[in-house]
Amino acid sequence: MPVLNPDGYEYSHDYDRLWKKSRSQHMARAPGGLLDSAMTWLQQKRDPDKVGHRVDLDRNWLYHWGKRGSSKAPCNEFCAGPAPFSEPETKAVSDFLMDQRTQIKLYISLQAYGQVVSYTVKANSTFNSELLDDFLDVAMVGTDGLRKKGSKWRYKVDASNDLIEQRSGCADAFAAYDIGIPFSYTIQLADNGVHGYLLPSSAIEPTARDAFEIVSGMLDYI
Q1: CA–CA dist 37, 42 (Å, integer)
Q2: CA dist 25 → 82, 149, 195 (Å)
Q3: CA distance linking residue 159 with residue 146, whole number of Å
Q4: N or C: which end of the chain has fewer CB within 10 A?
Q5: What is the distance between the alpha carbons of residues 195 and 137, in angstroms, rounded to a whole number?
Q6: Are 168 and 65 within 8 A, CB to CB?
Q7: Mean of the pLDDT values across residues 28-42?
Q8: Which value, in Å, is the radius of gyration of the alpha carbons in the chain?
Q9: Is residue 79 within 8 Å of 73, Cβ to Cβ?
Q10: Which residue numbers delimit the Peptidase M14 domain (predicted)?
């Protein structure tokens, strides 16, 4: 799927280049904390229209929804929404994954930016240390394959979840723990912070090529 958030993507090109949340129109409920309440009030004063458009789609999945690394405040960058799968985008993909779960061996969420391959490490009763070792092996094969292709960019494997921000309610964890897809990852694409979200057009094709090489290496190994 080329874009999970088409409405947000269009908005980012027409109005706000750094916009990354959905454009959903939920009624803004009062957040629980004093700081969140103050931030929501301030956002309403500055831009009442923007408060209703509020969900980070990578915080809107069922697994550990609404916990550490997310917020219920509409103006927060990591707003998880009013409930898991409150967004039609995440609901549609989750339904597809559920219907096709026996056919899918690898799930990858492509995001910007950081050049990191990460996977969830909090094991439950069905995910033991050997399976987590397999997660690491597949990720390493993908990044090593890219290096052998001579890419100028290097991707790090985040086996301890300390290279990216805390996440809960994210897509890769849902695919692994709630659906049971054998291998599930988030790949944060180029670059490493020099340009950040404003990646120059000249880097788009190399970034896509590198992502293809990583994913191809993973698939060949699996």
Answers
A1: 9
A2: 11, 45, 31
A3: 18
A4: N
A5: 30
A6: yes
A7: 57
A8: 18
A9: yes
A10: 1-222
Residue 192: helix, strand or coil by DSSP?
Answer: coil
Q: Residue 92 is encoded by which pair of tokens?
A: 């549609």
Q: How far apart, in whole angstroms, are the C-alpha atoms of residue 103 and residue 80?
A: 29
Question: Which class in CATH covers the domain with range 100-221?
Answer: alpha beta
Q: Helices 129-148 & 204-221, crossing angle to 10 degrees?
A: 130
Contact predicate 197/182, CB 8 Å: no
Q: Say if CB 106 and CB 219 are below 8 A apart.
A: yes
Residues in the chain: 222
Q: In terms of pTM, does the model score above 0.90?
A: no
Residue whose tokens read 């849902």: 174
Could you give the CA distance from residue 157 to residue 119 in angstroms, rounded to a whole number? Answer: 9
Closest by CA to 118, choosing from 61, 51, 189, is 189
Contact status, residue 173 vs residue 63, Cβ threshold 8 Å: yes
| C-alpha to C-alpha distance for 150 and 140, rounded to whole angstroms | 16
Numbered ranges of CATH 3.40.630.10 in the chain:
100-221
